[in-house]
Design brief:
This protein is mostly helical. It is built from 3 helices and 2 strands. Strands 1-2 form a two-stranded antiparallel sheet. Helix 2 crosses helix 3. The radius of gyration is 13 Å and the shape is globular.
Length: 80
Amino acid sequence: MGGVSRLYKKKYTPKERIKRATNWIDKHGVITLQEYATLNNLSRTSASGELKKLSQGNEAPFESKGKGSHKVWVKAGWQQ
């Protein structure tokens, strides 16, 4: 029963997390999983699940680009 565990408390509401990520994307163009997790004080697992939900559906605020370790999220409707 070894190992290290971390407890992350969600400091921000879902709306605040979306707003913080949107501001990051406005400034940097894209957001990575690690950036989203760090920005919103989430574990990578929680951040991954949340970004997955936030990039599905017609009214999703984000969409994903790339695959695997090169996956990033942009604002929905983003054109290169």
